[in-house]
């Protein structure tokens, strides 16, 4: 009896998502003229407008096939929940001059869902070839693939973002967005292809993503609060970063960021906080929590860098960062470093880091000799294992 009851409950739980789905009526873009190997923009725009005006849960369905799409913004507010389910592959123009700063934008929508096993292919190859940050300051100005502006109480799940010209996903001014099981892929040497960038947003949860790119897997920009990143596999790339912060005037505080249960492999950094020197305005970044992080073959597994100055940028490195970093915990971080300094805490001269705690750190150097720590303008506290040995500030 008990077993039957349990099975019944399990069946019910398994059925629940589809029951919820069943309430959605479906608009198939092929009914609006979308064709395999054709341009998707008219059909998708019409389908979106109808779904958005429907006043009941409506799914815009993009079936399996390849489509082409130029710059497009789909706007709310909508009269009811709208889901965009993509099973096909949608390709951006390969020529970067055909797009400005964004490719595909979802804006001002509440209760939105982006789902499906489909792919957004940014076709970034030509853009990366023109992107020479070592020679010009005019770099990284290509289109973000998927931009979400002022999207609230929403989900982004299962989709793949491939080979963006610049950032893959950028959330701005968003609230309560669940990002689940997404895949983000670009070559390790493609410049500025950040996986998921979040700015001025709160309540964002990223869970279970596979991200390998040429820049940060996840980056947290100014004004981001109460955001959690769990079970992300990152690499290649530049790791999971808070920042960069302190480059522009009037940036907003970053607070309450948790990075838990992530694996970072074959990457430049593991977990990082980065701020520019010579910040034009003061700002704060606090309550930053990194726990249960597995590190394989990473140059800088744990790094606070308040003299962040990437290649090809003009920095006044002698002027300190004005971003105050406090209440930071690095806990249960283990694995291997490719450089000898496995823990590097380089804080601001004018605003030393406060309340930085390291607990159970076990990072071994893959070269000959032992892993080391380096601390500047910070007096961290320690508990549990410390390999490398705790630094003396
Ligand atoms: C640290 O990691 C090494 C493997 O890299 C392992 O052999 C060792 O037992 C670990 N130490 C602790 C205290 O966990």
From TrEMBL:
GO terms for molecular function: polygalacturonase activity. The keyword Cytoplasm does not apply. InterPro entries: Glyco_hydro_28 (IPR000743), PbH1 (IPR006626). Coiled coil: none annotated. Residues 1-22 form the signal peptide. SMART domains: PbH1. It is found in: Secreted, Cell wall. Keywords: Cell wall, Cell wall biogenesis/degradation, Glycosidase, Hydrolase, Secreted, Signal. Its main location: secreted. The active site is at residue 238. Pfam families: Glyco_hydro_28 (PF00295). Belongs to the glycosyl hydrolase 28 family. This is Exopolygalacturonase-like. It comes from Carya illinoinensis (Pecan).
